């Protein structure tokens, strides 16, 4: 009986939702989290705006955006990026950046740009 309960528990752990998988992917990198937060707050942004708001070097931002696009978190339309439905769901699952982690300047930049 106990063995069966353990198997059932491990089966449910293996079945993570798409939102949880994407949220886990996002939370593994600060820049991905910043981009997700900006797009969640503003709806869409250009490459240059994302670069300024997240203070990310050009080559790094290009790589992060490409990876996020491949994971179906964001979609690109010309030079504008927006969250996909999966990205929006992940943004609602993840907690917002806390000010104690040094993101208060980041949040201030977002407010100033809106």
UniProtKB/TrEMBL annotation:
The lineage of its organism: Archaea, Methanobacteriati, Methanobacteriota, Stenosarchaea group, Methanomicrobia. Gene3D superfamilies: Winged helix-like DNA-binding domain superfamily/Winged helix DNA-binding domain. InterPro entries: WH-like_DNA-bd_sf, WH_DNA-bd_sf. Residues 95-114 are annotated as: Disordered. SUPFAM superfamilies: Winged helix' DNA-binding domain. Residues 95-106 have a biased composition (Polar residues). This is ArnR1-like winged helix-turn-helix domain-containing protein.
């Amino acid at each position: 009986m106990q063995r069966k309960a353990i198997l059932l528990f491990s089966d449910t752990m293996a079945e993570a939702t798409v939102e949880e998988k994407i949220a886990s992917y996002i939370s593994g990198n600060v820049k991905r989290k910043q981009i997700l937060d900006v797009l969640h707050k503003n709806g869409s942004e250009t490459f240059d705006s994302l670069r300024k708001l997240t203070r990310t070097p050009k080559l790094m931002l290009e790589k992060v955006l490409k990876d996020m696009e491949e994971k179906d978190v964001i979609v690109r339309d010309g030079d504008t990026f927006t969250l996909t439905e999966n990205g929006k769901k992940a943004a609602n699952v993840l907690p917002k950046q806390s000010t104690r982690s040094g993101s208060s300047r980041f949040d201030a930049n977002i407010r100033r740009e809106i």
